[in-house]
């Protein structure tokens, strides 16, 4: 194979890259995006060849690093190359060093000529644009200058780089940097996930960015957490309306505005209105969106009630959305009711929703409960720190008796007492779909724990329950012992931060686990008392015994195939 052919160049690049090449990216159910693995440098003794020059373009710093890279590469030392082929390898070594600097976030070492040289090399090696070396670009927690953002923009602007996920979290991204990114994303159709969290971007910067994204982008994941984007930032997530049309979406209803109602377009039955109070904001909110978002994180983005209403309208419009984090936005009752109205739609496919710290209150809790009666898609509902009280929790608990889709419910810091726990206990007796229940930092007490423990004896689905910091004492262990002896579904039990739960309660739980329970995989206790070691050892011994019992059950399972073979 000739050294100057495209196949030879691809082989040489793979040889130099070694184990640094990665497969296509995958995304976990929790919504977190994969982290980059550092580019692996080959190790070995110095080669007997003279130092490589690497002077075919690129900055002097990258050329020097590439020469050092080749000098310690055993693969390069074993090659017998003429001058032309050696220059080819040296250029690809320089590109490899550039890729490694990008993966490690060393943007300050790079110059524009390094990126240009890399793009040229990737275009030669991957003419079909299927390169995976730069599929993930991540830079977190380190300041990025506008010049460094410009280098990122060069990669985004070039399809051959095939950038699929871009994370620029907490890099002090300026308005100028956001403007550069916006221009680079204008014609980008390959980027699937964009993380710009914690960059102090305002609504104007997000609007400039989304104005480009909404045209041709196929972005599926967008993280804008902890940016003060406000309602205008949410409005920017909608595409800009066509100037030829004169009707727009609003927060409170549909129908053409009065001054345009006589000119209503015959092919647009779902027209919109513009109000005096929300006129400018409404002009940025049309009815349909092109960007097919699946995951959206707008946690702590200063939305307020107005922004939450816009966000609810966005959820209704984005039929592709499956995961939404709107925590910490203080949407109040008005924002919660707007979101609940959208959730009540049985055709909605949103599966995960977080409304933590949104001042929902009792009235908002009741609105969410009404939505759960008709919602058939929501599986994860997170409502911590919303002051739901017992009345709001009772409404949600009653709704879950007829809802068969919600599997994980978080209700931390909501002032729940034994009254709310009683309602949840009634739900656990009837609902055999719920798998996780978080009740940390409430006021359930021993009486509430008794009700929940009684419900666990009949429940066959709950796998995780947390009662941390709920004013439990040793008396609650009597109820839990009876439940654990009969329950065969619970796998994780958390009782930490209950200071009144003393050594006697710990001992009862440990003995019960050792004798009866065979399904519990983990139990969280504090052991904050003297002579805790024997009880801890008992709990650990029960875990070992449970593993042995599980192996025995697996060994005693009869394989029908073996029976057929023996007959």
Automatic annotation (TrEMBL):
Per its UniProt entry, which superkingdom is the organism in?
Eukaryota
Region annotated Disordered, chain positions: 254-278
Q: Which Gene3D superfamilies match?
A: Ribonuclease Inhibitor (3.80.10.10)
Q: Biased composition, Basic residues: where in the chain? A: 257-268
Gene Ontology cellular-component terms listed? cytosol; nucleus; perinuclear region of cytoplasm
Q: Does the keyword DNA damage apply?
A: no
The GO terms this record gives for MF are: GTPase activator activity; small GTPase binding
Which chain positions lie within coiled-coil regions? none
User: What are the recorded Gene Ontology BP terms?
Assistant: nucleocytoplasmic transport
Keywords associated with the record:
GTPase activation, Leucine-rich repeat, Repeat
Query: What name goes with this protein?
Result: Uncharacterized protein
Q: Where does this protein come from, organism-wise?
A: Syncephalis pseudoplumigaleata
């Amino acid at each position: 194979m000739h050294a100057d052919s495209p196949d030879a160049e691809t082989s040489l690049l793979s040889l130099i890259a070694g184990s640094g090449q990665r497969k296509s990216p995958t995304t976990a159910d929790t919504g977190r995006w994969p982290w980059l693995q550092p580019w692996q440098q080959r190790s070995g003794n110095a080669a007997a060849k003279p130092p490589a020059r690497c002077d075919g373009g690129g900055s002097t710093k990258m050329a020097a690093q590439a020469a050092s890279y080749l000098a310690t590469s055993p693969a390069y030392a074993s090659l017998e190359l003429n001058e032309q082929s050696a220059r080819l390898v040296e250029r690809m070594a320089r590109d490899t060093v550039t890729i490694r600097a990008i993966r490690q976030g060393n943007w300050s070492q790079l110059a524009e000529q390094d990126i240009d040289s890399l793009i040229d090399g990737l275009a030669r090696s991957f003419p079909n644009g299927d390169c995976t070396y730069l599929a993930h670009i991540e830079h977190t927690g380190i300041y990025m200058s506008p010049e460094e953002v410009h280098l990122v923009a060069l990669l985004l602007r070039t399809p051959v780089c095939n950038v699929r996920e871009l994370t620029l979290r907490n890099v002090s991204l300026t308005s100028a940097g956001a403007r550069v990114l916006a221009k680079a994303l204008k014609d980008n159709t390959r980027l699937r996930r964009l993380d710009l969290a914690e960059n102090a971007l305002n609504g104007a910067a997000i609007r400039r960015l989304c104005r480009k994204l909404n045209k041709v982008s196929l972005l599926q994941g967008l993280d804008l957490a902890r940016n003060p984007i406000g309602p205008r930032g949410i409005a920017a997530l909608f595409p800009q309306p066509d100037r030829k049309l004169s009707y727009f979406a609003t927060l409170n209803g549909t129908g053409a505005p009065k001054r345009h109602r006589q000119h209503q377009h015959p092919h647009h039955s779902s027209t919109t209105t513009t109000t005096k109070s929300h006129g400018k904001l409404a002009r940025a909110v049309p009815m349909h969106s092109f960007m097919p978002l699946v995951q959206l994180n707008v946690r702590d983005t200063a939305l307020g009630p107005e922004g939450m209403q816009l966000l609810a309208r966005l959820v209704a419009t984005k039929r592709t959305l499956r995961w939404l984090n709107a925590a910490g936005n203080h949407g109040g009752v008005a924002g919660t009711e707007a979101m609940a109205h959208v959730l009540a739609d049985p055709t909605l496919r949103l599966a995960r929703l977080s409304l933590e710290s949104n001042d929902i209150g009792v009235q908002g809790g009741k609105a969410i409960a009404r939505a759960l009666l008709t919602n058939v898609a929501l599986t994860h509902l997170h409502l911590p720190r919303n002051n739901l009280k017992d009345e709001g929790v009772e409404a949600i608990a009653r709704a879950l008796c007829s809802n068969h889709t919600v599997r994980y419910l978080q209700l931390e810091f909501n002032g729940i007492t034994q009254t709310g726990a009683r309602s949840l206990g009634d739900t656990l007796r009837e609902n055999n779909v719920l798998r996780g229940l978080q009740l940390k930092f409430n006021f359930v007490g021993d009486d509430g724990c008794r009700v929940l423990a009684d419900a666990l004896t009949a429940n066959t689905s709950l796998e995780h329950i947390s009662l941390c910091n709920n004013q439990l004492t040793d008396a609650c262990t009597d109820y839990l012992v009876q439940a654990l002896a009969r329950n065969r579904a619970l796998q994780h039990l958390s009782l930490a931060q209950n200071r009144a739960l003393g050594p006697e309660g710990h001992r009862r739980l440990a003995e019960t686990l050792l004798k009866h329970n065979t399904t519990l995989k983990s139990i969280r206790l504090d052991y904050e008392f003297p002579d805790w070691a024997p009880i801890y050892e008992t709990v650990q011994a029960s875990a070992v015994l449970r593993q042995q019992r599980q192996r025995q059950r697996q060994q005693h399972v009869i394989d029908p195939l073996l029976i057929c073979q023996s007959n």
